[in-house]
């Protein structure tokens, strides 16, 4: 039983890593209608930027905040000078552009900081607490809390604010939105900027655990995508819930179904996604996209 | 007082130029119709004004040259455009669509009242206030597009076949509302409308386009009297 | 048939003293294909840096005096294969066309395997490859190949032997990477403890190199109550994470870590390794990060060469930097022994090195290329972490 | 003679919303049938039920006596049903000709392998269909547009192209959703002539949804008026236009005269 | 008459191309042949991907899995001494069957959900390949040599491999080209464009997707066979997820929805890493990113659109003076499609003459980006 609880706790903490990235993917998707493969790469870059500030002697919190601000600008610039050209075109092309961006960012990080693991200081203490007989590190607890907070903020942003409405309108139909006076270009920049800033938060949260390498989020990206699709592309709550669900389920299956084991446990979330999407194409928490003939 | 003035406006899609010189004026508080066959360039003329197509010539609005402005800048000057076809934000609810229409406005309280006005005008929308625009029937979507333009409280309204897909009685109601808007708030309008009866019920003057050129301009009465016009647009 | 593979065949495989491609009277060209991008780029970069450091320094001294009396400079061409077998084959073909004398030192099992056959059929040496895959040291199967580092089995076996001979009863939990790396360690370990009734394996799990977390495996293994943890892991952040995780949930066994994930500074310190009763590893090269080697002549020269010629800043984060430096020294020996500027002569010379204590090698380990079935370095020493660096461990406990 | 299309007690709900309620009527072969009613009455939804895009919550729809409910739209298309969409849905990047030829998909023989191998019968069939499509376009005065990408044409022309696309399938049952929307008076007259000609030349039954009462009067043999998902009345166009309930719900009191 | 000569001219060009393709390896250096061989391998894989994604619009992130599966089947057959033709058939058919089974399930989903199911293929495929080591050789991989030139041919290995690839890829490309032109090409396109419309044209979206997906996997299997001909070795790394992403990028860069684009995509896949290696092996990631972005920035429709863009530019150049006076505005939202339509528009009778348009002012277009 103790092991069971510990496995659930472990799953939640791993799931939080996926969730951090998933939220950023949801954000950029809501604001631009795009699946952004570079999201992880941008988060990595942000983490390195924060790292560089720490190296330069800034206190950690200030470094992270500064990195968040810089990432916002960076995201906005990427939108303005790169993605803008592709936003009206074939969505497949835009996705490939984000793949190219991921490659480029990874390359830049590698050139600037190399491929060796760098130790990113943790915002939270390394100690741990006991909950229900399971050991939870303060770090993953704090990470989880932060993620829930971000999730709530995003939900508010999209459903309760004028900015959120404008972002969604632009993602839905930029041409039509412009006719109502929405500054489409600026809103897209804001959307990308927010997603990149959120990526910076994600990078700072998972950086200490994964240690910094240019490809540190490549593995998490697939999981994050899976979580986003499973939870519903337009739902921050869904993304987080699905990420946790995937993390926990994987662990339990790997341990209690020896035939699957740790090597094939990754098949479980995908099988689950398949079954759930058959029943609910919009994902667990997503709103159905209405298409009329 | 001229509000909008188009002088020898040209427009092109990519390498294809489709407007060859369109000239027209809309006086302040006036309503001008644009007539023409399929493909004559009516829609393109409206797009030229709202900046969604590449243009040449002169387009002046309230004394200011607006050619080359971005669509949202044009909208910010007080020009609302009901585009042709599905002009709604498909995955947003009816209420959200109307709220987006009022994006540029600051008077929060009045916005709520105006939404209420739209719902009175289009009772169909009231029942579906929470549905996504994409789920609406063709006519309901058209109503929503018109409603969204109303929400902007513009100085100039560009209507591109606003009656498209509307039931006769509804079309009538909408045009009645538009006329009221004109009378009450002095909104000027440029109207593309295939249903010439509706069009002439609203406009004072009209311009006839042929292959991207202005070929004729006249008052409603003058035009109604012309044989060619009768045959092509009015019947009988 | 042997001729058809390569139009340069007549030139390359001709007998006598006609020089092979890639060697002139003043220079010799070596090629390295290794991952310089992607997930394994960290160690991959090290393989290049170490080799460049060694030969850079030699070239600066004027070159290497070959067995045929000529002094040559060593030119190194590097190619990125991103750990993709298809790309490493492509790189090999490119090397042939670029007239490389020999290929070697590259990292990776599949990538080296991908062009093993091509290297054989074109008679291009593919030597001192950095993989523990034994096929490269089997002279019948791989006449133009030779491995560098101890087979993974040897490393696992060394630890197993130490444990078996400890006398005490131990329960062992095993976590291994799901590939030939992890499998090699585990099979070597198990072979060594076979028949030792005092050692029992109570839990065995695997993970994927792409995993972001192995917390679940640690939790699962901790539940077995093992007092020895054999962690055949090649991923740096995961190794740190396991060190942290196990102590968090209160599991404090003795650890075994492979040679390439046991860096005192990069892994053990951040992982808080002092909390455990003992961290064991195996090694054949000196660890420059260890304080005890800080003044060691080899290490000092190595570090300065690495910086100056290897274009590598700071402490090596992976042992592959040292290993490839040792590989350089081994090649140097072969060069000094080869009497003809041919690949044949080179292979013969390379296979005749014995008892060579290359720079950076620990006391008690040597290069021995004469044993069929064994890579150039097959002897390893079990080391124990002492809070700062490593000391050779004579016995377990 | 058996009805070509027969609906009995068709119901359709979306969530809690009732879109169609107990709709029943028969359409005789060779006739032109009108379907009118206010916006949101359920006309397009009814088309979607007939063409298989929506599945009625209950009720039965038969085409030439065979049950259509539960069949895939593509299956129904293969047995002779063809339709246009209220909002033109063309392949915008493809040429006008390609769009029209697409309508003849079900008439082309052979499976993927024969087409990949380019067996002679496939190229013959393709050539034949293209010629036919060109002729249709030519008759409509659209030959000049054949090789243009569809999105270079104006909105009004899209409706026409949809019609030709639907016709190339040689349907026995054709559903037209507001074919006259966006056409000027003269163009509507042309459309009326075309539809009449098609009906006279082919064994075809046509159901038209349209708000243009002039077109409905000129073309239809019978009409059904829908209101709020229910059948309000059935009769001739003239009967409908003079029915007070219809005037009240749909045409509007003073619009009756100038809507034509 | 004119049609006849143009037909003859076309046949002449085709014959010339065939002759060049057949004769080329005899004169080219080995390294070039070897590169061409690998280009062929990936061109076939990209071609398959193009059919399901470029033409039919179903995002497929699993194509590399089919390449890997084909390679494993080939390796298994060769090491068990099957006849090589049988091996090829098995590689294509077994892969096709697996593809069909996956498609039967995946095609029930739409949009990104399909992407998720296909992403799972390589992700699960890698550990699976390791586990099934009796068939796959586990993580050490498996070698199989069948593509060395036989003595009687008097050819070098690279030449012989080239002919194997030319044969398989050539047939594959010809079949695909025919397929995407007629009935099924239109069916693919309409499923991509609008499934409801497809259905009402008698095109079953479900079966069309299944068909496209199965064809893609057969091409994947064939490319796996060719992979073994070219590389003679395979391991789980062959089918790693990252390569699937690269295939996707190669397809878009070559030109989505274009047969020639697939070939260019295959070339891109092979040549760019070689190029970046030659430039600086330590900077391959960054330079590959730059190249990818630069190509798409200049040619959003892929390299295949280069001639068209050049033609337009030169036409622009001559008309620049006349058009210079015309100020720029934003193109309409629908304008995006135009560059992909090959035929210059015929003149409508209504539009007697269409003077050439203003030169594109990129920065302006940028500023007005959206409409
Ligand atoms: N995106 C486009 N690209 C190229 N040409 C276009 C494009 N859109 C419209 N055209 C062409 O421009 C001309 C004018 O089109 P426009 O849509 O303005 O006509 P319209 O008068 O509104 O017609 P309708 O009554 O059918 O709506 C037509 O000849 C049309 O073919
Ligand atoms: N897929 C759907 N989801 C939700 N509601 C729907 C859906 N399809 C239709 N409806 C609702 O059903 C009602 C009838 O729509 P329908 O399109 O059939 O109307 P219509 O009679 O064609 O109207 P119009 O003349 O405006 O085109 C509308 O209120 C619409 O919102
Ligand atoms: Mg129009
Ligand atoms: Mg309708």
UniProtKB/TrEMBL annotation, chain A:
GO terms for cellular component: plasma membrane. GO terms for biological process: amino acid transport. It is a multi-pass membrane protein. CDD domains: TM_PBP1_LivH_like. InterPro entries: ABC_transp_permease (IPR001851), BCAA_transport_permease (IPR052157). The keyword Nucleus does not apply. It comes from the Bacteria. The chain crosses the membrane at residues 6-27, 34-54, 60-82, 94-115, 135-159, 187-206, 212-233, 240-260, 266-285. Keywords: Amino-acid transport, Cell membrane, Membrane, Transmembrane, Transmembrane helix, Transport. It is found in: Cell membrane. Pfam families: BPD_transp_2. GO terms for molecular function: transmembrane transporter activity. Belongs to the binding-protein-dependent transport system permease family. LivHM subfamily. This is ABC transporter permease. It comes from Sinomonas atrocyanea. The lineage of its organism: Bacteria, Bacillati, Actinomycetota, Actinomycetes, Micrococcales.
UniProtKB/TrEMBL annotation, chain B:
Keywords: Amino-acid transport, ATP-binding, Nucleotide-binding, Transport. GO terms for biological process: L-amino acid transport. Residues 4-236 form the ABC transporter domain. GO terms for molecular function: ATP binding; ATP hydrolysis activity; branched-chain amino acid transmembrane transporter activity. InterPro entries: AAA+_ATPase, ABC_transporter-like_ATP-bd, ABC_transporter-like_CS, BCAA_Transport_ATP-bd_LivF, P-loop_NTPase. Transmembrane segments: none annotated. Gene3D superfamilies: P-loop containing nucleotide triphosphate hydrolases (3.40.50.300). SMART domains: AAA. PROSITE patterns: ABC_TRANSPORTER_1, ABC_TRANSPORTER_2. Belongs to the ABC transporter superfamily. This is ABC transporter ATP-binding protein.
Automatic annotation (TrEMBL), chain D:
InterPro entries: AAA+_ATPase (IPR003593), ABC_AA/LPS_Transport (IPR051120), ABC_transporter-like_ATP-bd (IPR003439), BCA_ABC_TP_C (IPR032823), P-loop_NTPase (IPR027417). GO terms for cellular component: plasma membrane. Residues 5-253 form the ABC transporter domain. The keyword Transmembrane helix does not apply. It comes from the Bacteria. One of its GO terms (molecular function) is ATP binding. Gene3D superfamilies: P-loop containing nucleotide triphosphate hydrolases (3.40.50.300). PROSITE patterns: ABC_TRANSPORTER_2. SUPFAM superfamilies: P-loop containing nucleoside triphosphate hydrolases (SSF52540). Keywords: ATP-binding, Nucleotide-binding, Transport. This is Leucine/isoleucine/valine transporter ATP-binding subunit.
From TrEMBL, chain E:
Coiled coil: none annotated. GO terms for cellular component: plasma membrane. GO terms for molecular function: branched-chain amino acid transmembrane transporter activity. Pfam families: BPD_transp_2. It is a multi-pass membrane protein. InterPro entries: ABC_transp_permease, LivM-like. Residues 321-333 have a biased composition (Low complexity). Its main location: membrane. This is Branched-chain amino acid ABC transporter permease.
């Amino acid at each position: 039983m103790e092991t069971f609880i510990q496995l659930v706790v472990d799953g939640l903490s791993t799931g939080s890593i996926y969730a951090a990235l998933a939220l950023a993917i949801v954000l950029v998707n809501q604001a631009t209608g795009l699946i952004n493969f570079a999201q992880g790469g941008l988060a990595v870059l942000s983490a390195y930027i924060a790292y560089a500030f720490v190296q330069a002697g800034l206190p950690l919190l200030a470094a992270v905040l500064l990195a968040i601000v810089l990432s916002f600008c960076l995201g906005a610039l990427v939108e303005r000078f790169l993605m803008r050209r592709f936003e009206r075109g074939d969505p497949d092309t835009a996705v490939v552009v984000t793949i190219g961006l991921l490659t480029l960012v990874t390359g830049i990080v590698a050139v600037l900081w190399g491929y060796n693991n760098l130790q990113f200081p943790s915002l939270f203490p390394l100690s741990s607490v006991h909950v229900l007989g399971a050991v939870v590190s303060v770090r993953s607890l704090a990470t989880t809390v932060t993620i829930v907070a971000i999730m709530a903020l995003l939900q508010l942003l999209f459903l309760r604010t004028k900015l959120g409405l404008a972002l969604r309108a632009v993602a839905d139909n930029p041409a039509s939105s412009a006719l109502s006076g929405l500054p489409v270009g600026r809103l897209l920049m804001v959307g990308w900027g927010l997603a990149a800033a959120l990526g910076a938060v994600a990078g700072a949260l998972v950086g200490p655990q994964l240690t910094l390498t240019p490809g540190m989020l490549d593995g998490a990206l697939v999981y994050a995508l899976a979580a986003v699709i499973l939870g519903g592309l337009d739902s921050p709550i869904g993304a987080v819930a699905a990420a946790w669900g995937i993390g926990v389920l994987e662990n339990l299956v790997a341990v209690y179904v020896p035939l699957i084991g740790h090597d094939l446990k990754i098949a479980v979330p995908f099988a689950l996604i398949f079954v759930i999407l058959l029943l609910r194409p919009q994902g667990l928490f997503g709103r159905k996209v209405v298409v009329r003939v | 007082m001229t509000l909008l003035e188009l002088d020898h406006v040209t427009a092109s899609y990519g390498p294809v130029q489709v407007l060859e010189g369109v000239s027209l004026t809309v006086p302040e508080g006036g309503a001008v119709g644009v007539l023409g066959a399929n493909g004559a360039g009516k829609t393109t003329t409206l797009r030229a004004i709202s900046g969604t197509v590449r243009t040449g010539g002169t387009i002046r609005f309230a004394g200011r040259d607006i050619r080359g402005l971005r669509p949202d800048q044009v909208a910010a000057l007080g020009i609302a455009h009901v585009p042709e076809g599905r002009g709604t934000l498909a995955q947003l609810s009816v209420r959200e669509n109307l709220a987006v229409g009022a994006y540029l406005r600051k008077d929060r309280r009045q916005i709520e009242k105006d939404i209420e006005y739209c719902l009175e005008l289009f009772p169909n929308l009231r029942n579906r206030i929470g549905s996504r625009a994409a789920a609406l029937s063709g006519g309901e979507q058209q109503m929503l597009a018109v409603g969204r333009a109303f929400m902007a409280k513009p100085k100039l309204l560009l209507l591109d076949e606003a009656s498209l897909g509307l039931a006769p009685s509804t079309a009538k109601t909408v045009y009645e509302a538009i006329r009221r808007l004109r009378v009450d708030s002095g909104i000027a309008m440029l109207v593309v409308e295939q249903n010439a009866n509706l069009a002439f019920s609203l406009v004072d003057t009209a311009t006839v386009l042929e292959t991207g050129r202005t070929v004729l301009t006249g008052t409603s009465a003058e035009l109604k009297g012309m044989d060619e016009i009768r045959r092509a647009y009015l019947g009988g | 048939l042997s001729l058809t593979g390569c139009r340069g065949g007549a030139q390359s495989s001709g007998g006598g003293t006609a020089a092979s491609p890639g060697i002139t009277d003043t220079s010799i060209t070596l090629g390295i294909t290794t991952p310089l991008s992607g997930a394994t780029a960290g160690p991959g970069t090290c393989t290049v840096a170490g080799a460049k450091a060694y030969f850079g320094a030699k070239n600066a001294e004027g070159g290497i005096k070959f067995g045929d009396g000529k002094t040559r400079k060593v030119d190194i061409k590097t190619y990125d294969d991103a750990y993709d077998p298809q790309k490493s084959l492509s790189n090999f073909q490119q090397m042939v066309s670029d007239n490389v004398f020999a290929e070697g030192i590259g990292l990776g099992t599949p990538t080296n395997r991908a062009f093993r056959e091509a290297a054989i059929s074109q008679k291009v040496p593919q030597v001192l490859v950095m993989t523990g895959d034994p096929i490269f040291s089997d002279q019948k199967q791989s006449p133009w190949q030779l491995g560098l580092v101890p087979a993974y089995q040897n490393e696992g076996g060394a630890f197993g032997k130490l444990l078996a001979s400890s006398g005490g009863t131990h329960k062992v939990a095993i976590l291994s990477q799901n590939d030939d790396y992890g499998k090699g360690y585990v099979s070597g370990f198990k072979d060594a403890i076979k028949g030792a009734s005092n050692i029992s394996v109570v839990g065995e799990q695997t993970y994927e190199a792409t995993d972001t977390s192995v917390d679940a495996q640690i939790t699962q293994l901790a539940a077995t109550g093992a007092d020895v943890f054999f962690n055949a892991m090649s991923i740096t952040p995961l190794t740190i994470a396991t060190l942290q995780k196990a102590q968090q949930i209160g599991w404090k066994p003795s650890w075994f870590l492979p040679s390439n994930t046991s860096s005192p500074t990069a892994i053990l310190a951040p992982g808080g390794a002092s909390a455990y009763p003992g961290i064991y590893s195996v090694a054949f090269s000196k660890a420059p990060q260890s304080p005890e080697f800080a003044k060691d002549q080899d290490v000092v020269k190595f570090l300065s060469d690495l910086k100056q010629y290897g274009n590598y800043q700071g402490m090596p984060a992976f042992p592959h930097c040292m290993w490839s430096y040792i590989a350089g020294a081994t090649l140097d020996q072969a060069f000094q022994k080869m009497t003809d500027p041919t690949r044949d002569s080179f292979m013969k010379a390379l296979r005749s090195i014995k008892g060579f204590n290359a720079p950076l090698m620990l006391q008690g380990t040597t290069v021995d290329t004469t044993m069929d079935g064994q890579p150039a370095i097959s002897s390893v020493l079990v080391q124990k972490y002492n809070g700062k660096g490593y000391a050779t461990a004579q016995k377990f406990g | 003679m058996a009805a070509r299309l027969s609906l009995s007690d068709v119901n359709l709900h979306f969530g809690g919303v009732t879109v169609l309620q107990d709709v029943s009527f028969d359409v005789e072969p060779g006739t032109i049938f009108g379907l009118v009613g206010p916006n949101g009455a359920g006309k397009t939804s009814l088309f979607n039920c007939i063409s298989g895009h929506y599945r009625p919550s209950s009720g039965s729809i038969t085409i030439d006596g065979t049950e259509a409910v539960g069949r895939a739209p593509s299956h129904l298309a293969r047995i002779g049903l063809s339709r246009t969409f209220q909002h033109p849905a063309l392949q915008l990047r493809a040429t006008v000709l390609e769009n029209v030829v697409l309508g003849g998909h079900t008439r082309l023989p052979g499976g993927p392998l024969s087409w990949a191998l380019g067996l002679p019968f496939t190229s013959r069939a393709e050539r034949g269909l293209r010629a036919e499509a060109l002729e249709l376009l030519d008759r409509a005065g659209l030959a000049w547009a054949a090789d243009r990408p569809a999105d270079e044409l104006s909105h009004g022309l899209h409706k026409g192209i949809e019609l030709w696309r639907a016709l190339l399938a040689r349907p026995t049952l054709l559903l037209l959703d507001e074919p006259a929307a966006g056409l000027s008076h003269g163009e509507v007259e042309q459309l009326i002539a075309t539809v009449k000609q098609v009906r006279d030349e082919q064994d075809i039954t046509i159901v038209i949804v349209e708000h243009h009462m002039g077109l409905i009067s000129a073309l239809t043999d019978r009409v059904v008026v829908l209101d709020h998902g229910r059948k309000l009345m059935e009769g001739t166009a003239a009967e409908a236009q003079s029915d007070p309930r219809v005037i009240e719900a749909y045409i509007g009191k003073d619009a009756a005269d100038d809507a034509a | 008459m004119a049609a006849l000569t143009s037909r003859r001219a076309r046949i002449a060009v085709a014959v010339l191309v065939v002759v060049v393709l057949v004769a080329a390896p005899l004169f080219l250096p080995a390294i070039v042949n070897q590169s061409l061989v690998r280009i062929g391998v990936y061109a076939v894989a990209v071609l398959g991907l193009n059919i399901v994604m470029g033409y039919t619009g179903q995002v497929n992130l699993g194509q590399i899995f089919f390449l890997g599966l084909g390679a494993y089947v080939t390796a298994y057959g060769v090491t068990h001494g099957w006849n090589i033709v049988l091996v090829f058939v098995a590689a294509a058919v077994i892969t096709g069957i697996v593809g069909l089974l996956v498609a039967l399930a995946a095609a029930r989903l739409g949009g990104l959900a399909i992407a998720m199911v296909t992403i799972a293929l390589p992700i699960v495929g890698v550990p699976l390949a390791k586990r099934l080591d009796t068939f796959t050789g586990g993580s050490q991989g498996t070698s199989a040599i069948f593509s060395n030139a036989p003595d009687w041919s008097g050819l070098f290995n690279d030449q012989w491999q080239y002919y194997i690839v030319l044969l398989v890829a050539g047939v594959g490309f010809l079949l695909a080209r025919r397929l995407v032109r007629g009935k099924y090409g239109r069916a693919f396109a309409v499923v991509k464009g609008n499934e409801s419309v497809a259905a009402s044209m008698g095109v079953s979206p479900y079966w069309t997707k299944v068909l496209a997906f199965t064809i893609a996997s057969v091409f994947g299997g064939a490319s796996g066979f060719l992979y073994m001909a070219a590389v003679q070795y395979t391991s789980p790394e062959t089918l790693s997820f990252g390569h699937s992403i690269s295939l996707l990028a190669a397809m878009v860069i070559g030109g989505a929805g274009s047969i020639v684009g697939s070939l260019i995509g295959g070339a891109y896949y092979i040549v760019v890493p070689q190029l970046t290696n030659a430039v600086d092996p330590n900077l391959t990631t960054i330079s590959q990113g730059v190249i990818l972005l630069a190509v798409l920035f200049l040619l959003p429709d892929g390299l295949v659109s280069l001639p068209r863009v050049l033609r337009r530019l030169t036409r622009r150049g001559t008309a620049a003076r006349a058009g210079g006076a015309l100020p720029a505005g934003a193109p309409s939202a629908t304008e995006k499609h135009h560059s992909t339509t090959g035929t210059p528009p015929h003149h409508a009778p209504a539009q007697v003459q269409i003077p050439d348009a203003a030169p594109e002012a990129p920065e302006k277009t940028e500023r007005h980006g959206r409409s």
